[in-house]
Structure formats: C-alpha cells, structure tokens
Design a protein that fits this description.
2 domains, 28 helices, alpha/beta, five-stranded parallel β-sheet, TIM Barrel, eight-stranded parallel β-sheet, 785 residues, disordered N terminus
Length: 785
C-alpha cells in the first residue's frame, strides 16, 4: 500500500439511494390518483419533483456529502433502465422517441383497453387493447419487486429516456452536486429474459453499451464528476463469460467517457470468487456490503490498488436496528488511518429503499424498542456521526457515541427480548414433529373421499378486495370512533357477502376474504409475542404498493388463538369447504424486520411452533382445509448456491413443523409467490403440502418447466389470473394457460386459482375475472368428461 499522505481532514459520507415514497407516502397517493384519472401528468411530475428536492435537501442537512440522483422512480429502477435503452416489447406499440407515461405504466401494470390508458395518461402511444404487464419478480433476495426486461435476438437499443440527466440537472439547479445512479449494464442484462430460450441476453452487451455511453457523456457534459454503477450481479455465482462481460463493459465505458469517475456498487453479499474480477475492472471506486459480508474487507484491503476509493457499507440498508457506532469505529479507524480518508467513503450497505423513512414519526412504539431502532433518516445521521468521528476524532461526537453504546447494551440485556420458556420449547423439537403420519398417496385418497370435489377444483388464494369502505372502517375502529361491536358487525357483513358471491359464481373451495386483516404478516405479528409495529414505517414493495413490515425483536409465542373465530363464522354460512388461512413461518420471517442477535433459523423455528398451535386449534374447531402461505420462501434463498442447502433445510423443516401435526383427512394448502422452481424443486416437494398454489400467469406457465422432469407427487394450482395487473383476462387466455399446465402436470393434480391474493384489486376487476376463471374450468372439464 502506498505511503502517500493519509489525510483525515475530510471523509466522504455517501448514500446509495433513499426511499422514494415520501414520509407520508405522498408518491403512492399521487400515482393512484393519476392511474384513476383524477389528476394529470403535470400534477404527478410536480409531486415527484417536490419529493426529490426535499430528499436531496434532507441528506445535505444530515451531513451526507455524496448524494445520489436518479435513485427516484415512478415504479422501479429496472423498468426505468428498460425505458432508457428502448427495451420495449412490440406489444406496447412504441414507435420510437420519448417513451410516454402511458407506455411506461402499461409495461408495469398492463391495461385493459387503450381507452383506459388514454383516460389515465393523456399521451398514449397507440397500443393494442388488453396489454398485459411485463413479468414481475423479486429484486435479488429482497421483498422489493422489479419488472423483468424482455429482449429479443434482433434487439436494437436506442436512447429513449434522459431521466438520469434530467434529474442530475434538476438537483444541480437546486444547488446539489449529486452522484447519478445507473443500474449497471451487465446486471441489467443478467436480469433480463427472452422468449427465445436460446438467446443469452449477455450476447447483446455490445449493442447496449453505446446507449449507456451516450447517457454518461451527457452526464459529464452537465458537470457530473462521479457516477454510481450498480452491479449487484457481482455477489452471485458468475462464470468466466460473465466476468469477461464486466471487463468488456467497463473497459468500453471508461474509455468512452474518461472524464467521469466510476463507483462500482455491489451489495446483498460478498464478492467471494468474483473479487479478482471486480478489482481488475478499470473503475475508480468499489462499494462493498460489509453488513452482509464483513469478512470480505480484509481480502479487498490486501489486493486493491492504492488509488481505488473504497466505499464501506457498514450501516445496514435493509434492516432497522441501530448500529453500535463505537464498535464500528474500532473496526474502521485503523483502515482510515492506513488507507487515508480521501480513499475511503462511509456508506450504508445498499440503497435505503428497503427501510422506512423516519423514526421520529413513530409516537406509539415502546420507548425501549424505539431507542434500538434506526430508519433512513437516522441511518444518515449514524453515517454522519461515523464520518465526523473518523475525520475529527471521537470527542467531536462523544454524546452520539455514548447514546449508541447505551442502546446496544440495553437491548442485549432486556427481558423484553428474551423468554427462556420459548427457547426451551424450540430446543425440544423432535424430528417426528415435522412429519405427517402417512404419505401423500394415502392422505390424497382420504381427502378425495372426504371432499368429493369436481375435476380441476377452483378456489382463490385467500384475500378479497380491501375496498375503501373496509379501510375507512378499519381506520375508524383504530381511532376509537367505531365501536368493537359495530366493527365486528361490519366485518361479518363483508364476509357474508363474499361467501354468498363465491357460492353464486360456482367456486368449489371458498375463503372468508380476510377483511379483518390489515396485512398477511402484520395481522399475525400483532397477535404474537415478540413482534412490534409502526404507524408510518412504510416500505415500497412495487409500484405504489407499500408494506409496513413487523419488527421481530424478541422471542416468539402465541398467547391465544388468532383466526379460529373468523373461520368458524365463515364456515357456518356455507356447506362448501372454507379454507383456514394462515401465513407460514418462513414468510413471516422474511417479510419482517428480523432481530439480528440470534440466527434467522432460530427465530423461524419459534414462529413455526406458534403457527403449529394455530393449526391444531383450527383443526379442532372443524377446519378440513388449512392454507399456510409461504409466499416468501424462495426469496429468502441465499444468493450463492453453496449456501442454499442450509437455508432450505431449516426453512422446509419450519414449514413442516407447523403443518404436520394434523390428521390425514385435513388437507394442507400452501401458496408461493414468484418462485423460480427449477432450482429448488426438491425442496418444494419436501414441504409435503397436499396442495400448492403458485404464481405462473405472467411467465405463461414457464415456471412449471421444473415439473417436466421432476415428478411432483402432490396437487398444484398454477395461477391463471395475474392479480398484479388491473386488466381482466379473458376465458380464452385462462384456458390456454391451463392447456400449457396440462402439458406439464397430470389432470388429477391440477387446481385452478388466481396467482395471488385479491386484496389489492377492485371488485369490478375481480368479479368478471373470477367468473371467467370458473368458465375456463368448466370448459376444461367438458373436454375430459
């Protein structure tokens, strides 16, 4: 390492990205008004500009001096990149030039007709009727979603959006010199797909790079000196061709735009065997996720060239726990002293898109717990404290450091966190507790005799539309202006109406609609010990969809039954089976902010035992079908294959712990979201659910390819209705999807259902869609009767 001057007079404090929705979800409501045709594009863009301006100003005021631009999006950053480079499938009718908001949102959400889109957006590109949305999937192993770019072998890329340049210029006019953020070209292509399965999207790299170079040249012309290129693919299992693509990409871009400095950002894991490749790239900086992979730093320090700026991601951008700042300083001070402050930046591990905005908005949370937490605003203050201490010494921020140390010690010792009885029960779990008493073949015979369902039985995933009336009633009850009795009466009326309607249209297996539930995880967390909740801790999931993840802070147990009363009421209204609806332990874990003081597997086992108790009570009350949703099992899969086995072992065990204590005649269902099954099909089979429903409609049943070679023994409901789009699919679309499913699965295995819960949709969309689904089932039955 060079012995050049190691100045500590200045030290860069950076963020890689911040939440977009606003402290009060201002963007969410602006988007939804726009989609409803209540406002125009000018109003929407004005709201967005106001949020960006406030965000830049806030970062500056908190002591961040490397502020990102182009981290804002109306939907997601991958879709923004598709639009920027003109990767717009022909179905959307784009004819070149600047991409309209109508086309942008059609790619994100689909549209039922061109007229609907015109009414909403005022500037349509003349698309065909009934456009489906692009496929959507999870962003690496997070609960954030992105729209999958769809490319063709004759793909031509063209610069069709100057959003990165425009937002840089916008920030500059407000007095902020920002570091623009771009999704790196290699990660963009690796996230892409093609209908031509023989096409490797990376083969299109040389066509793509000139468009990136054009954007970068215009940023340089506007005065940008640094650009952040996100290449999280570097934490995945890469092959030599992938690494060569990275070398070719950054060799080209740095040669084409030599006046710009490049910060290569990696996150969600360690570089591992990609370290040499990353360090060989002709970039000026490298960002490391040192929360997920702290051990990689020693290797990087030993091998990085002296002039490489290292961005040290030491504040957790994905979780909400307050950092132990004195402990971090013990780690960082020798590095800064050796390498020099001009060669080091202090940063969060990744974009703070994944955490809520501001803890100061939380007035009702337990004071002890609140003192252990840190949201986006507080994380920026933590970064600034670290920066100040590293530049000017600990004395300059001694009060902040003392408060951090005290919070860490209090959390570690708190009886609110630790419950010896829960720990003892989890330690006493035996292998027999995770096994059904008989194999599926025997259970299936018993269940078919019990239920006598028609071929291709129809059902839904669980929730029905949470209308404005439902949300108003819930809010009034929470505020105390609607009594417990009146709220219960309201919920019973909604449930009764929904049961009757399902019977009228001919669904075979019913659900109660979940009107009493605010969220599929929050509802259970509120009734389990060890969880806490925020009032304004919203996090973007996709588009305008926001969630408030529970905070799993302590040992978990179930004080009393959670769902039995509502199931009993619903079942009393009909002779058809009504499923008991639960959320599984792995999903509750993965969709919560999880405690970081014990292994995730240990926390999951505690949740599994609590759900096991609920399953037992539902069965005792008479429930014959119980659905335990594991929507997030796949997204928790580690990014490196070498770590998969360990995760899947404990994840599958936890599901089986909660599902295996029932009689043969009790049918266990589960639901899984956006699951690329090919690589984990053995684990899916090992879950041993009697029926699994999965999301397959956007992929046109491609997700069922795994079942061509793996003989899945149990029953399965591949989704035939994409609930993440407002469009109503026709009967013919659904029958075609079922035809494709029958090419992969036996008829006696197939159920027919939407691909997810219907909570976010409107009744005027759901009613015709489900009626079409029942009609499709009847058509298929007619062909085999």
């Amino acid at each position: 390492m060079s012995t050049s001057t190691k100045s500590t007079s200045t030290l860069s404090v950076a963020t890689l990205g911040t939440p977009r929705m606003g402290p009060r979800r201002e963007l969410k409501f602006a988007l939804e008004r726009y989609w409803a045709g209540q406002t125009d594009a000018e109003s929407l863009t004005a709201t967005a500009a106001k949020l960006r301006a406030a965000n830049w100003a806030q970062q500056k005021s908190l002591g961040v001096n490397v502020i990102p631009s182009n981290d804002f999006s109306f939907y997601d950053q991958v879709l923004d990149t598709s639009v920027m480079v003109g990767a717009i499938p022909d179905i959307y009718g784009w004819k070149g030039g600047q991409v309209s908001l109508a086309t942008y949102f059609a790619m994100a959400r689909g549209s039922q007709t061109a007229a609907v889109d015109l009414a909403c957006a005022h500037d349509a590109d003349g698309h065909a009727e009934g456009m489906p949305a692009q496929e959507m999937t999870k962003w690496f192993d997070t609960n954030y979603h992105f729209m999958v770019p769809e490319l063709t072998s004759n793909q031509q890329f063209v610069l069709s959006s100057l959003k990165p340049v425009e937002e840089y210029r916008e920030a500059k006019a407000l007095g902020h010199r920002t570091r623009p953020v771009l999704l790196g070209p290699v990660t963009f292509l690796k996230l892409s797909k093609s209908k031509d399965l023989s096409l490797d999207p990376l083969s299109l790299l040389d066509r793509l790079l000139p468009v990136y170079a054009s954007v970068l040249q215009q940023l340089a012309a506007e005065g940008a000196d640094w650009v952040q290129c996100d290449e999280p693919c570097l934490v995945l299992d890469l092959n030599d061709a992938d690494r060569a693509a990275l070398q070719r990409a950054y060799g080209f871009l740095t040669a084409e735009v030599p006046q710009l400095k490049f910060m290569l950002a990696t996150y969600f894991g360690g570089l591992g065997d990609n370290l040499e490749a990353a360090l060989s790239l002709p970039v000026d900086g490298l960002h490391l996720d040192l929360v997920r992979a702290p051990n990689q730093l020693d290797d990087v320090l030993a091998k990085a060239h002296d002039d490489l700026v290292l961005s040290l991601g030491v504040i957790d951008g994905r979780n909400i726990w307050r950092a132990d700042l004195p402990a971090l300083l013990d780690w960082l001070e020798p590095i800064v002293a050796e390498r020099g402050a001009d060669q080091v930046q202090i940063a969060p591990s990744c974009s703070m898109l994944h955490v809520p905005v501001d803890l100061h908005q939380e007035a009702a949370i337990d004071p002890d717990l609140k003192s252990w937490l840190s949201f986006s605003v507080q994380k920026m203050a933590e970064l600034a404290t670290l920066g100040a201490a590293l530049a000017g010494g600990r004395r300059s921020v001694q009060d902040a450091l003392a408060a951090s140390a005290a919070a860490a010690a209090a959390r570690k010792a708190s009886p609110k966190v630790h419950d010896a009885k829960v720990v003892e029960r989890a330690a006493a779990v035996t292998p027999a507790m995770s096994k059904r008493s008989c194999p599926f073949e025997q259970r299936a015979r018993t269940q078919r005799s019990e239920f006598n369902l028609p071929a291709f039985p129809t059902t839904t995933i669980g929730s029905f539309p949470q209308t404005q009336e439902v949300r108003v009633a819930r809010g009034a009850h929470a505020k105390g202006t609607l009594s417990d009795a009146d709220y219960k009466t309201f919920l019973r009326e909604e449930t009764s109406r929904t049961i009757r309607w399902q019977e009228e249209i001919g669904l075979d297996v019913l659900v109660h609609g979940e009107f009493e539930r605010n969220d599929m995880v929050q509802y259970f967390g509120e009734q389990l010990a060890g969880f806490a909740f925020t009032e304004h801790g919203w996090v973007q999931s996709y588009g305008s969809r926001c969630v408030r993840p529970p905070i799993l802070f302590g040992d978990v147990f179930r004080p009393s039954p959670m769902t039995v009363e509502w199931w009993q009421f619903a079942q009393s209204l009909t002779a058809k089976p009504v499923k008991g609806m639960l959320t599984g332990p792995v999903t509750i874990l993965n969709w919560s902010f999880v405690r970081n003081d014990i292994p995730r597997s240990a926390a999951c086992r505690q949740i599994a035992l609590a759900i096991r108790d609920e399953v037992a009570d539902l069965e005792a009350a008479g429930a014959k079908m119980i659905q335990i949703d594991e929507a997030a099992l796949r997204e928790g899969l580690p990014l490196r294959r070498s770590e998969w086995s360990s995760y899947l072992d404990w994840a599958v065990e936890c599901f089986r712990i909660c599902s295996s204590g029932v009689k043969d005649r009790t049918q266990i269902h589960t639901h899984m979201c956006y699951s690329e099954f090919n690589d984990i099909i053995d684990a899916i089979g090992a879950m041993d659910a009697d029926v699994i429903s999965i999301e397959t409609s956007r992929s046109k049943m491609e997700l069922l390819d795994a079942f061509k070679t793996y003989r899945y023994p149990n029953e399965i409901g591949p989704g035939v209705y994409d609930i993440h789009s407002p469009r109503v699919p026709k009967v013919e679309e659904m029958t075609e999807l079922l035809r494709l499913a029958r090419l992969r699965l036996a008829d006696d295995q197939l159920w027919i259902n939407p691909d997810c819960g219907l909570k976010t949709r409107k009744w005027q969309e759901v009613q015709p869609a489900l009626m079409n689904m029942v009609a499709a089932a009847n058509q298929i039955r007619a062909t085999v009767s």
